[in-house]
Each structure stands twice: as C-alpha cells, then as structure tokens.
Amino acid sequence: MQTSAAPVLQLTDIEKIYQTKTIETVALHRINLTIGRGEFVSIMGPSGCGKSTLLSLMGLLDEPTHGTVAVDGRPVQSYSDKELAGLRNLKIGFVFQSYHLINDLAVLDNVELPLLYRPGLGSKERRQRALAALDKVGLSARTNHFPSQLSGGQRQRVAIARALAGAPEIILADEPTGNLDSVMGEEIMDLLLGLNREHGTTIVMVTHDEQQALKTQRLIRLFDGSQVG
Amino acid sequence: MLWNYLKIAWKVLLRRKFFTAISLFGISFTLMILLVVYAFFDYAVGPHRPELRTDRLLFVNRMQMLYKGGGQNNSSVGYAFVNQQMKALRTPEKVSVSEANPGTAVAYVGQHTLKLDQRRTDGAFWQVLDFDFLAGRPYNLPEVRAAAHVAVISETTARQYFGAVAGAVGQTIEVDAVRYRVVGVVHDVPIVRLFTYADVWVPITTTTDDLRSSNLQGAYQAIVLARSAADVPRVQAEYDQLVARQPLPDPQRYERLVSHALPLMTNLTARFGGGDVGPSSSNRFLRVLGLLALLFMLLPALNLVNINVSRTLERSGEIGVRKAFGATARRLTGQFLVENIFLTLLGGVLGLGLAAGALHLLNSSQFIPHSEFALNGRVFGMALGVVLFFGLLSGAYPAYKMSKLQAVKALKGDNAA
C-alpha cells in the first residue's frame, strides 16, 4: 500500500507544560511533526521523555499548552467536546499498553464500543462489524469470553479489534507490545504491519523495542520532550 | 446502547455486592416509608368508597367566629343552617346534612358489650356518597321525615351483632336502648374517612337534639355534591356568599364569620393544620409534606451520591476508554444516570415489596379499624415518580463529576476532574 503525501496529522510548535503550584514540568518542547496518510511511524525515547503525551495530543485526548494540532489540515483547538468526540470516533482508534478493556463487558461488546457512539448505526450492523474486526485478529471463537478469561496477547488483539471496528484512518498505539512476551509481541506487530500494508491504515506507535521500530517506515526519537531525530 | 448500559450497570452492581446492598437498603427502606405514608394519605383523601366522587364533593364542617380582639371560636355547623339555607343553594346537585362526629353507642350481644360509633344522617347522605351496599338499601326521605327507627349498619357490626351479613336486613338492632330495624348493610368504612365513618347510621331526626335551633354553630356537617367537577368553584362561591350574608350572632364580640365549602383533602388538612380553613391551606399543607418527603429522601440520596462518586471514579479507566472512542461528556452523563436510575428502580421494586408487606401487616393488625391499605395505581405511580426523582437526585452529581474527567487523566487512573 502506497503512502500519500497529504498529511493526516500535523503538529506545529507544540509545547506541553504541566503546571502544579510549585513545579512547572515541560513535557514537550517545540515539536513539529507531520504524519502522512498511510504512514507507519514509531516513536522512541527513554521513559518520561513525552512519548505518551505526544500520542495523547495526536489522539485529541489532551490539549497542548502552545501550538496547534491539525487533522486533515484543519486545526482542532476551537472544536467543542462534541466535535472532538466525533473526530476521535470516526478517525482514530487507540491501542493501549494495558489494553484498557472493560472487564464487565464480553469481548464482542468491548469491540463494539466505538460503534455505539457512531450515529445511525443499527445494532445488527454494529454486531457484524465487531465480528468482522474480531475475525481479522483471529478471535472469532472468543466473542462471549470476558477479558479476564483471555491471555495478555489475546487481550491486546481484542484491543486492536476494538480500534479496527470503527474502520479509523489512524491507529495510535501506545506500547502495544509492552506487556507481552516476545512471541506475542511479534504476533501483535505483524498484525499492525498487516493493517498498514493491506488497508492503508496510518499507524503511530510508541515503543521501547528498537527491532520493532525498525520495521516501521519512520522513526521519531524524543529526548526530554524534544524531537532529536 | 441502552442494553449495553444496563449490562454494565448489572455487572457493576454484582461486582460491589456490599455497596450495592447498602445502596439498595437505603433506597428501598426510604421508599417503603414514603409509600406507606402515601398509601395512608391516598386512603384518607383519595377517591375511595364512600367518598368516590371526590372531584365533585365539598365538605362544610367548620364555622369559625373571629373575635374582634383576636382569637376565634371554632365549631361544627348548625343543623338548621345546613337544612334550610344550604339546601336552598342553587348551584349544588344535592346537599346532605349529618352529624359531624359519630357518637359512641352501646349494644349488647348476649353478655358482651359492643361499642359502636353511630352517626345520624339525612336521606340525601346516601345519594351524595357511594356506599357499597352488601344487602338491603339506604333509608329514604319519608323514613327520615317520619323519624323512623331504621338503621344501616356496617358489615363488621352485622357480623358482631347478628353473626353474619346474610339475614341481618329486616332484623332489629338495639343501640343505646333504642331499637332500630336494619334496612341495609354496607361494606366497612375506615375510621380515616372522618366525614362518613360509622358502625351504625340512623336518621338524623331520631336525635334528641333541638333541630330547630337557628345557631350557625352546632354539631353538624354538610356534604355537598356539585353537578360536575367544573362546577365546584361556582358552588364554593355561592356558599361563600351565603356565609357573607349571615348576620353575626353578637356583633359586639365577633368581627366576622369564616366558613368554606372545601374539597376532602383541603378540609382534612385544614382540620389538622390549625385555625386557617381557607382554600389555600391544602396547597400549603402539601408543600410542607413535599418538603418533608424531600428532606426524608435527601439523607439516603446524599449517601448514595457519596457511594456513587467513589464507585464511578473507580471506573475512570472505562471513562477514559469511552471518551477515547468517541463518547461525549453528555453521553457519559446519560450512561451513568441510566445506571443510577437502574439501581434506584431495583431499590424501588424492593421498596414496593417491603411497602406491600408493611401495609399487609397494618391491615391484618387492624391498628386502624377497617383499614384496607393497598398499593393501587396511584400509589404505584407515585412510587415510580419518587424512584426516578431519587435516581436523578443521587446520580446527577456523580455523573456530572465523571463527565468532567479528562480522558487522558482518566486513562492514567487520575481521578481529579
């Protein structure tokens, strides 16, 4: 699958400062970053360098202290809660290191979650899409299981299926293999590479694993909140 | 969507069994008390036999004379005032006169003494009210005019005096050494029906009182039936004019007369509410009652708010995930409100069961004679309303607090909004 030059995400002069009564912590400093449509980008850096903060800003889960985030060329800082939620729902799928599955819901219900917030989608169609997403990650036989009944690798595959169910253009993955052993990690990495290759899904992945990062198209390195490579 | 919310709500309830039990106990116990009180209230002032047409009935049982220097003289109404002046009113369909309070009378069954409440009434009493006759008939106008010694007795009186309802009609009952022929047996009237309750009803003309007295005050009451519910204000206005026309018995001492024809509830609330018998007294009484009910609900609601806040914030990860995948603050507020209403509905069902049990106990204990408290449609509707109100009251703040949680903080398990 070819990548297109058109940026799907654009971060300009981003600064993120966490302020408490006594301490000011600069989490990100002057970040300028463009993610093209269909790219697979990895972000690396030591713990506390701002990788997850950067991913949260890309995912519209947090606001920068300074600078602008643009999706499809449109800055989002003036968007309302409803507009941001709509954008997250349609455009972005998240995969978290600790899976963040809802333990009280069965696998199928977890995967269906993004579709619940999509207007005009009937329950039958939601179910079909969720089943198709589970099929893609090879978990069709686990639809009625609960997260606690699955292994770590299976849980992460459910989390990927959930991210896929809404057919987002972008998947933001925060250390998706961080909690898995090497075999499981490889499986998940292959899954993400397949999605990027076969469906053209733009993927931004935070990782500590150099080997995995090298498999992606571009590597961004952060150090102390600044982009160093 | 709703199904998803309900599934989550059920799981959350099962997950925290102790807190769920405490919450449900608080809700159901509060509701039980409220429902029992409301069932009593409904039983006393709702449209039940014999006061079935409460929307058309008006009651006059108080004639106040206000002293010039302050203070008042309260009494029931004089017989002649009702029988002559009120019965001449043009707007009502019918006006009935009866004793304001039943007198205690004694009957003997073998060696046993039977204490009975006896009320004297006119013939119209049976027309403005809807007694449930199990046997026989009411006494009529000619019998009242003739001061015939006839009586209508309650079902319990028939059982206690004659052994059964069947066959009581036509027999003689001796009350306070006066013999009456039983012409009818009616379903028991509970004591809370203050204007109509008795064990034995006999013609008003059998009294030894001087019925010719022209005193405005006396020992009687009027029950007025309007032609329609819409006609009630016209009847009240005509009655007010009638009172305004009455000359003061002693203008040197008294400033004015106060008496109103009031619907059942207003009349009762005025009776228990003190001196003011104005038409607005029931609104005031209801406001106070509503406020008390609200305060009564507030404590368990605050407890529930506290439990809900901690229970909601424990789910910050879920809130973060839902926000990340497109839930708006409004949607999340809706979800948590639905969950809370689900919890309170569960508590409501339990409360309804507890209230049904408590009312059954009250009925079977006969703590209130002839009481038949029941959870009817009105009580159920009220319960549903209270439950929803309770659910909203205790769920709104946690839902609001949760919806303000930032997604990125929620995902990290940071509960600060």
From TrEMBL, chain B:
CC annotations in GO: plasma membrane
Subcellular location: Cell membrane
Domain MacB-like periplasmic core: 25-240
GO molecular function, one term: transmembrane transporter activity
Keywords: Cell membrane, Membrane, Transmembrane, Transmembrane helix
One Pfam family recorded for the sequence: FtsX
TM region(s), chain numbering: 21-41, 285-305, 340-359, 379-400
Segments forming domain ABC3 transporter permease C-terminal: 291-406
UniProt protein name: ABC transporter permease
Native species: Hymenobacter nivis
